[in-house]
Amino acid sequence: MIEIQHLEIKLKEKTLVDISFTIRSSLALIGQSGSGKSLTLKALLGMLPQTMRVTLQKKSDFDLLVGENIGFVPQNPFTALSPLTKIKKQFFSSKERVHQLFDEVGLEYELLDRFAPELSGGQLQRVVIAMALEKHPKLLLLDEPTTALDPQTKIVILKLLKDLQKKENFLMLFVTHDILSAKEISEEVCVIKDGVIVERGAMQAVANNPKNEYTKILIEANFANRNFRQ
């Protein structure tokens, strides 16, 4: 379990984010573009520019500052990998470990000898997930990992992530604007708006009976787009 208390991100004197949350198993941080969810993710990864000041209190079963304890799956698998390097050269583990990871994410070994542009979006996202799990992380951070995928592939990747969490036993923070996708793999949810959390609770309860008007708008927008069906 990870408790993040008073994560505050400031730019000069302006507070951009001020939130607290707990990851017990799988938590979704949901909000529209500009809500502060991506800033939160980058703060945990130590990727914010030096012009932004980050302060937080944390309680965790492991050290968040140790890189191998955190795995990261970025938004776009098409830009996450080098297009000029064979897939196998982009891993740092032994051949046996890479084969194990490919088995877990459902990929053929022959893809290791290909270049990223030769793979489909779904294959690329599986490769990126395998890389994120390479060092047996205790926390997996997901930045809108299905946005660049077609609806059917999105469903497959969400199920894969859910199955991998059960097998590898990592905590998961799923950052997204899509509450319906998050509903598939997250047990709890925090809804963020303008850098503060406006609603939190069990995923099913919030998705099925939102209390905050902003949460209702997010859900209605997801249904209107019809990019994902329950």
CATH class annotation? Alpha Beta
Q: Largest sheet at a glance?
A: 6 strands, mixed
Helix content: 25-40%
Query: Widest sheet: strand order?
Result: 5-6-7-3-8-9
- Given the helix and strand composition, which structural class is it? alpha/beta
CATH superfamily: P-loop containing nucleotide triphosphate hydrolases
Gross morphology: globular
Rg from alpha-carbon coordinates: 18 Å
Number of helical segments with 4 or more residues: 8
Span between termini: 28 Å
Could you tell me the number of beta strands?
Answer: 9
In percent terms, what proportion of residues is strand?
25-35%
CATH architecture: 3-Layer(aba) Sandwich
Keywords:
3-stranded antiparallel sheet, alpha/beta, 8 helices, 27% strand, 6-stranded mixed sheet, Rossmann fold, 230 residues
Give your account of this protein's structure.
The protein is an alpha/beta fold and 230 residues long. It has a single domain, classed as Rossmann fold (3-Layer(aba) Sandwich), CATH 3.40.50.300. Helices cover 35% and strands 27% of the residues. The protein is built from 8 helices and 9 strands. It has helices spanning 37-45, 77-80, 95-105, 121-132, 151-168, 179-185, 203-208, 213-225, and strands spanning 2-11, 14-23, 26-30, 52-60, 70-73, 139-143, 171-176, 188-193, 196-202. The protein has a 6-stranded mixed beta sheet, with helices on both faces. The longest helix is centred in the last third of the chain and has 18 residues, at 151-168. The two termini are 28 Å apart.
